[in-house]
Amino acid sequence: MSSTESPSVPAASVLPKVAPVRVGEGERLRSVGLPGVTLSIRSRRPAREGLPPALYVHGLGGSSQNWSTLMAELDGVVDSEALDLPGFGDSPPPDDGNYSVTGHARAVIRYLDAAGRGPVHLLGNSLGGAVTTRVAAVRPDLVRTLTLVSPALPELRIQRTAAPTALLGVPGVAALFTRLTKEWTAEQRVRGVMALCYGDPSRVSPEAFQDAVEELERRLQLPYFWDAMARSARGIVNAYTLGGQHGLWRQAERVLAPTLLVYGGRDQLVGFRMAGRAARSFPDFRLLSLPDAGHVAMMEYPDVVATAFRELLGDTGRLSTDAEDADSGVAAPGAGS
């Protein structure tokens, strides 16, 4: 594994020069070269030595920035890293062009194996929830706990508001959409995304909105932006159709790690009713229902999600920073009951 560190250096020199990626206070960004893929990793300086490691995986069209607020909330609890999936954020496309759920999961596994930080507390949102479910099922040795925020697990009847996202995976639709919306400003696009993803878009601060606009303007300059979106959307649709041992719900049943499930009552992309299906599928689960949240509860209610995460760690003894303490069931001070 090769790694270069910089607050704003593009992940690959062959890519066109675009505006630098935003790095929040207390964060750093580095590029990690792995076989077949280069990943951008966002991290925070640990509050103290010996904290258990955590890795965060974003959803379709998102980036590691989606986790910045929650990562800050969990300072002193875990040693946080968030990655940009291949083709998103500051990570260039994968060498093989594989944007399937399995392809993304393979990238996460390669990073964890190379970094040697596992087992980690693994957190995923939307597409990242599907990816991390697959990682936890096939490599239980890499996962201490699993936290899923509105995971994109198969629904027989998707919500009408989620249909355009699914259609993005149909060949040619992304190119058509690009042509039809070429006059849209970045502000218009961001408002549309926030209306879709947030339970209450008015909760977004003017500063956060402007940051999102600047990030979208940066990413729209990348020649692979729409291709990564379309192929990843297609990957989700394809994962929904898989049956047998490779089906995501079947893999959920094989997850050994204690799992926190977070669902929003105003989620327009993942049906709130899926919380019941998830609760019946993951063997060791805790459910956090947020009636006013949308699709990105970790951005809308980071304090509530952080509290539930700390309680998960306290309940399972995973707050311990020492393996022997974890084995004996001794939780660190401040653990939830």
TrEMBL record:
Keywords: Hydrolase. InterPro entries: AB_hydrolase_1 (IPR000073), AB_hydrolase_fold (IPR029058), AB_hydrolase_sf (IPR050266). Residues 55-300 form the AB hydrolase-1 domain. The keyword Cell membrane does not apply. Gene3D superfamilies: alpha/beta hydrolase. It holds the Pfam family Abhydrolase_1. GO terms for biological process: acylglycerol catabolic process. The keyword Hydrolase applies. GO terms for cellular component: membrane. GO terms for molecular function: monoacylglycerol lipase activity. This is Hydrolase. The lineage of its organism: Bacteria, Bacillati, Actinomycetota, Actinomycetes, Kitasatosporales.
